[in-house]
Amino acid sequence: MAKVPAFAKAFIGRWRIVEMDVWDNEFLDLVDTAHLTFKGVADGEIAFGALRGFLDVRYGARDGSACAEFSWEGNDENDPTCGRGWVAIGTAGRLVGHFYIHNGDE
């Protein structure tokens, strides 16, 4: 089993999604509590609205800060979907980043 890079350990765990540019806060918790979870060396999941996906994560740096970049695949209202995204640890220990749906919203 591969070892998790030391700086990546800061991302491990379940993070509550509290705000997204495209969707209002009421929509975020439509089916489940909106969250982004990082587990182990390269695994994770995302859930918000009617979307649930599984992450393939790579840890690295973006603009000099530690970041987690990922591709994901899953379902949105039972339709297969996929995309990519990234997050970095911002002010007050919160994650900030971008989430993209291929051929969909950004």
Structure, explained:
The chain has 106 residues and is mainly β. The protein has one domain. The chain is 4% helix and 54% strand. It has one helix and seven strands; from the N terminus they run βαββββββ. Strands 1-2-3-4-5-6-7 form a seven-stranded antiparallel β-sheet, with no helix packed on it. Strand 2 (35-39) and strand 3 (43-48) form a beta hairpin.
The tally of helices reads: 1
Radius of gyration, taken over Cα atoms and rounded to an integer in Å? 13 Å
Secondary structure class reads mainly beta
Which runs of at least 5 residues are low in confidence (pLDDT < 50)?
A: none
Average pLDDT score: 89
Helix-strand sequence: EHEEEEEE
Domain count, please report it.
1
Biggest sheet strand line-up: 1-2-3-4-5-6-7
Give the helix level as a range of percent. under 10%
Global outline: globular
Count of individual beta strands:
7
Largest sheet data = 7 strands, antiparallel
Strand-residue proportion: over 45%
Distance between the termini: 34 Å
Summarize the structure.
4% of the residues lie in helices and 54% in strands.
Considering the chains and any ligands shown, give keywords for the structure.
54% strand; 7-stranded antiparallel β-sheet; 106 residues; mainly beta; 7 strands
